[in-house]
Amino acid sequence: MANVAVVFKVYTDEGKEQTTADEIKKSLNPKGVQLEEVAFGIKIVKVLFVHDDKEGSDVFEDRLRKVKGVTEVEVLEESLIS
């Protein structure tokens, strides 16, 4: 049985990136969270989840969308890992 790593790009309310990242860490327990500046002070939150390949990544996307301060969620990268 393999695992899947999925990285989400999460957009937040302006100026709420760190607060939203902290809430994601606390409530969803991802493998990793980091802030990344994309342009002219605009920041996104990158979130990494690892899950069993039998599960779908859409569950994590739905959970991210429910976090206060999240405005948009995109799958940035998804790959099979051993």
Description:
This protein has a single domain, classed as Ribosomal protein S6/Translation elongation factor EF1B (Alpha-Beta Plaits), CATH 3.30.70. Helix content is 24%, strand content 50%. The protein contains 2 helices and 4 strands, in the order βαββαβ. It has a 4-stranded antiparallel β-sheet, with helices on one face. A hairpin with a 2-residue loop joins strand 2 and strand 3. The radius of gyration is 13 Å and the shape is globular. The model has no long low-confidence stretch (mean pLDDT 93).
Concise description?
The chain is α+β, with helices and mostly antiparallel strands and 82 residues long. It is 24% helix and 50% strand.
